[in-house]
Amino acid sequence: MRDLFADLRYAWRQLRRTPAFTALAVLTLALGIATSTVFFGLANALALKPVPGVNLDGVYASGGSVVERFRRLEEAPPASVRAAAAHRSWVAVVHVPGRAQRLNVGVVSAGYPLVLGLGTEAGRWFTRDEERGAAHVAVVSDRLWRDWFGADPEIVGRSTIRLHARAHLTIVGVATRGFRGPYPGYAQTTDVWLPLGTMQALQLEFVPAERRARATATFPVSTLVKAADGASPVQLTSDLQPILRVPIPPGSPARPTEARQVTAAIDEMLPTTVSRFAMTILVLATLVLVAACANLANMLYARGAGRAGEVAVRLSLGASRRRVMRLFLAETAVITGLSALVGFALAVIGLTAAGLTLSGLQLPEIRWTTLALTPSADGRVLLFAVLAATVAAACVGLLTAWRSSRVEPQRAFGASSAQTTVGARDGWLRTVLVSIQITAAVLLVMGAGTALESTLPQLSRRLHYDTSRVLASQLDLRLHEYTPADGRAFITRVLGAAGAIGDVEAVAVADGVPGGVGGTGARLSPLVAEPPPGGPTGAGRRVYATSTRATPGFLDVIGLRVLRGRDFRANDADAAPLVVIVSEAAAAALWPGDDALGKRLQLGTGPWISVVGIVADPMSSAERYQDYSPAPWATVPFDQWYQPNLLVLARSPRASALSGPLQQAIRGIDDELAIFETATIDQSIVAWAGPRLGAARLLATLGAIALAISTMGVYGVIAYFVSRRTREFGLRLALGATPRSIVKMVYDHAVHIVLVGLLPAVFLAAVGSRILETRVAMIFPNEIRTWVIVPLVILTAGIVAALVPARRAARVDPNVALRDL
User: Fold this and answer.
1) What are phi and psi of 121, to 5 degrees?
2) Which conformational region is residue 569 in: left (phi greater than 0), alpha (psi within -120 to 50 degrees), or beta?
3) CA 722 to CA 273: how far, in whole Å?
C-alpha cells in the first residue's frame, strides 16, 4: 500500500506538469463515462427502476383467467400462495364537476394492494365486502388528487367521481405517491381504481338478463400472486394451473391450452419492446465509451513513447517491467478517477435535463398512455459509473502500460533525442485505436441518418394542404352514451358554435383527415369500381385508398378544389341516395381513361355509391423517401355513414391560438364531454412522430459525441506522426521538397487512418441495417444520401483534424530539424 500511494503521488506530479494533456485526457474519458451513464440512467428508469410504492419481490403473474376461476383461488389458495389478486384495465370518461377526461381505469380485486405491498397517501383501499358487493367506491392516484382536488385530504369519503354518464363512485383513498400502475417506465397512466365486482355490475347492465350468468362467469381478468416463503415458480405453476385454467366445453372446436409457466411480475408487466429499446440505447451509448477509451489509450500510448528514455533508465537500474507497468497504471488510475468524478457530475446534469424533457411525454399511438420516466442518479447509476470507469481504467491502463514498458534500453540510449524509440512496427496499434473510434462514430451517425430517412416520409407524406391552418378536437360520443340521433343533433349544434368563433373560415366534422395520424388519421379501405353494363363480368377494378366520413364544408376546411362535379350538400342525409367524392388518383386508378362522374363504387363490401365529385389529390404517399406519387382518397357524407368517434375541424389563419375557444364552444353544448386532444394537424403529426424523431436525435447526439472524440483521436495521431518525423520533414525540405508536398503527405496519412475505420464501419452498418429492415417496419436502409453524406462527414472531420499538424509540418525549419545529425 505504501508503494501504491507513492506511485499515485508520483503520477499526480507527472500529470500536473502537462496540464493541457491531463485536461484533454480527463475530458475525453469523462464524456464517454457521462454519456454511457446518462443512457444507463434512462434504461434504468425505463426497465430496471422499481415502481414507486410497489414491492414486486415474490410476485408472479399466472396469465389470464376468468372471475369464476379467480374466486376459487381467492377462497381456497394453495399452500404456495400467500395472496392473490385479479386486475384488468378499462378506458373510461371520468367526470368531476366542471371537468371530464378519458383515463385509464384499473379494475382490481381486494387483494391487489396486499399482493403489491401498496399503501395510501390518504384513506384506504377497498375491503373484500365492498369488492364482492359491487360497492360504488374508488381509489384515485396521487396525481389526480393533486391536480383535480388540490391535495385536499377531506375528499376521502365525501367527494365522488362519475364514470361515463352513470356510475357515481365515492373516493375512499388516494394511492401511494408516484404509483400509476405496476408498469415501470412505460406506465399506463392509471388514475382511478375501482373494485372488480363494481366493474362487473356496470358492464352487465348492457348484457341481456338471460346471458348475465354466463357473462359473470366468463368475465376475463389477469392474475397476480404473492408466493409463500420457499415456493418456486415450478411449484406455483403446478398448483395454480388446475385452478385457473378455463375448461373447454364439450364439443367445442377449441384445443385445450397447455399449462402456462408463471413468470415474475416485472417480466410480465414490462413490454418487450420497451426492454429491447432500453438495452439498445445502452449498447449504443457504450460505443461512445469505447471510442473514448480508444482515444485515451492513444494519448497515453503517445505519452509513454515520449518517456521511453525514462523507462530505459529505470530498467537499466534494475527495475522490473512489472514495476514500470505499475507506474503507468497509477497514471491511468489518476486520470480515470478524475474522469469518473467529472463524468458523474455531467451525468447528473444530463439525467436532470432528460427527466424534465421526458417526464409525461405522451405516446401518440395510445393517447391515454404516457412515459413515466423519472431518471435520477440513484445507487445503481452511481455503481454503473464506477464500473464504467473501472473497466475503462483496466482496459486502457493494461494496454498502454504493457506497450510503454516494452523498451529496449540499448536501443533507447543509442538513439538520438530526435529519434523515436517506438518503431514503425508499433504504428499499427495507434491506427487500430483511431479506427475503433471512427467505427463507433460511423455506426451511430449512420443509425441517426437511417432513423431520419425512415421517419420523414411518415412525418410529412407530402400533404397538399396547409396542416397548420386546420385545428381538430377529438371526441368519442359513444363514451357518453349518445344515440345516433343525439349524435347528429350534436354535430349540427357544434358546427354552428364553432363557425361563430372569430377568425374561423370554415368548419366541419369528420372522422379523420388525409395524411393524419393517431386519432386524426383517415382509415385505409378498398374501393371497388362497378363493372360497366355489358362489360366484363365479375369484380371491377380495386384500389386501396384512405377514406373519410365528412360533413359539408370539409373540402373548404382542408382547402381542396372540386375539379368536376360538386361538394356534399345538406340534403345528402341518411335517407338520401348514397354518394361519394373521390380524388383524381382514385378516379384514374378505378376508371383509367374514363370520366368517373356518375360511376358507382363499393367502399369495402358495402353498398354501391355514386360518384358526385372529383377533387384534387390531398396528399402523396411514399414507399421510399423520394418516391412520392399521388395517393388515392375518397370521402363520404358523415350523416350517411354516422359513427360516434369524430373530429371537430376548424380552419383559421391562427388555428393554434383557437384551441381554447373551440373547446369552450364544444363544452357550451355539453359541459360533460371529454375532449381528448385539441391541436392543429401538423402538431398531431409531429407528436405522433415524436418518439421516432427522439430516437433519431438520440442517435445523432451519440454520433456527434463519438465524432468529436474520434476527431480528437485523429488529431492526436497526426500530431504524434508529425512530431516523430520532424527530422524527416526537415531533410525532405532541405533536399528540395515543397511545403505542399509535406502537407499532402500528412493528409494522405490522415485519410488512410479514416478509411481504415470507415470500411469496417460501413460494412457493419450495412449488415445491421439489413437485419433491422427485416425486423422493423418502415425502415429503409438504402437511402443514397445516408450512405454518401455520413462517410463524407467523417472523412471531412478527419481532414480538418489533420489541418493544424499538417501546417506545423510544412513550417519545419530544416536547420533546426537537422541540428542533431
Assistant:
1) -85, -30
2) beta
3) 49
